[in-house]
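Q: Could you write out the predicted structure for this multi-component system? I'm mainly interested in how the pieces pack against one another.
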Amino acid sequence: MKPKLAVIYFLIIVAPLAAVTWLGIVVSRNETAMVRVRFNELMAGRLNDIAAQISALLEQRERELMAQWPTDALTAELLRERARSSGIVRQYFVLDPRGTLLYPSPAETLTKDEQDFLTRTRTIWERSEIPGPETETQAQSTAVQQDSVNPITQFKKAAPPPVTIKGWHSGYWGSGIQLLFWWREESGRLVGAELNEVRLMADIVGLLPEASALPDARIELNDSQDAVVYQWGDYLGTEGNRAPVQLALAPPLGSWHLSYIVPDDSQGAPLWFGMASGIATLALACAGLAVYFYRENTRALREAQQRVTFVNQVSHELKTPLTNIRMYAEVLQEDLSETDERIRRRLDVIVSESQRLSRMIGNVLTFSRNERQLLTLHPSPGNAGDVLRNVASQFDTPLRNRGIHIDLDTSNCRVAAFDRDAFEQIAGNLLSNVEKYAIGGDSVRITCKQENDTLILEVADNGPGIPAPHHERIFKPFYRVSDRINDGVAGTGLGLTIARELARLHGGDLTLEPSERGAHFKITLHAPIHLMEDQS
Amino acid sequence: MKVLIAEDDPNTREGLAEVLQREGYDTVCAANGTEALDVFEREKPDFVCLDIMMPGVDGYEVCREIRRRQTLTPIIFISAKSEEMDKVVGLELGADDFIMKPFGVREVIARIRAVTRRCLAARRHDPAVESFSLLDVEVFPLELRARRGNESIDLSLRDVKILQLLHRKSGQVVTRNEFFDECWGIDYLPNSRTLDQHISQLRKRIERDPQAPAIIKTVHGVGYRYEK
């Protein structure tokens, strides 16, 4: 394949692919960002739902605790009994309006559970953390977003003003969470309960899905120390994780949060896959197109080559019969040189026509060789005058038949190195043009001379000449001043092309010289004078 | 001088043989490469005209085999193959010239004369090829050429033989049969018209006035004579 063609085919494939890839990347980035936004919104919504369920569970606990609170006279025994029978309460407590702990009172005899409770809650009572300063307002739930692309902050809507003054206290004891719910009675007494942590966790986990349609992700419920309390989803990887959406739970579990975990390369992958698929499809289409054009091109070239080969083959096959026709006609011409004029004339026609056919075949084959860059010269010592006399003798009869006289001057020719066959073909083509186009003329002057290392041949007729617009075009392949087949002039339009090509190959040129009448061609060939000149 | 013509096309082969015989050469023919090598071995020709494309052993192979036998016999390829590479291969194999079909008789003759001059150059010490004069015409057999003043005259091998015979028998009548025996060879069927035509053509080239010949004079009914 030619380099130029290879570059074109390369561009056919690469240029569209590069453009599409660039557009694809831009679109993909935008699309990925948009997908992430929507995805995060979706996941934030899902996490909000879960957080709301957990909040609802705690509100239900509030209602249950307040409903289960004994309305009859409170006794330590009664509260112990209630705590033992309740699955959700670990320990009840009662404070007087001034905040003094009435139950379990350190001043009284306590059970082990009550003593442990006091141990767990000592700092709370010492610092009077119950009731807290914000006891009469609902706590806020804040979404914590760590995704740099699309920060999402979820705000829990403000609850309606509380009817009852109540509140939660959350803290940690050991490795577990410690949740205390309290409310103030109309009497001013503050009562409350420490929730059973295990039961609460079980209830919270019971709210969460056991399995999830999360093929490439998982949701974690994390405590304040980021430890996983519970998780669900199929993705269990720990390397290269991203948590595009995190949501803090509402108080009293405000230090806990929900995290949506995905692999770092997720979300964009399907889009990249789609884009890569599209580019691959386009690449295949472009490659297919290039292959199609390449095959069409090579088929056209092959057919052209076959036509050239066919012409070559035919021309080649014509050579032997033409050789025989020409040779026998020329021999017969010598035999009948002194016979009937009419017979000799007919024979002259056979000879001149076979010579014309030889020139035509020679031109076709020379042109074909030149097209394939196979045209080379073989200079050898010789006298251009001898060649010209031979060529002129071939044209003597046909030109005489057209009333054209040959005036040949080779007196200044010397033995020089030139390609005899090429020079003969040049001269033959020029004289053939005189025969065909110098209609109305009566002479052609052929002069040949040697000037230093340059052989100069001039062929000038006095026919109608060549119109100015055609002066340069006549040297183009297949160009004829008149292309009409019925104008009575034969020819392929190759003669001057080949003559000029051979002259240039010979280090010279073929030009059309200005002339008052007729066509005047000048050929120069680089032909060094041979040192061992003819001794004649 | 004997020429081997190896050519598979019978018409070309016979035509070439006739052209060469007219020029004064003896010819032997072969229709293929194998036959060409046999004839070459048997006849020992002075030079060979060889077609490239022949059935069986081709011209290249024949040329290679002739050169392998270490003979310097000149070889001219005559072929329809005209590609550059064909010529190069032929010349590389040791051929002396390459004539492309379709060729004209004059071209073949010119090239064969050139090869003949090279053949004759090897015999430059042979008295038979010494130059001689017929009145104001000087004949150079080695160069197949004659000269009158500054004018150079191309001669065929047969022309040279005729002029040599006339010079050798200067003052005597040379009969038609003598001409045929010495200049045409024993295989040639005598034809008075052929001789007369040849002498006529020769006179046109060497006589100052062909209508009143001074060198080749006609002896009616017998033959021709040269007188100093």
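A: Regarding packing and overall arrangement: Residues 134-160, 484-488 of chain A have pLDDT under 50 and may be disordered.
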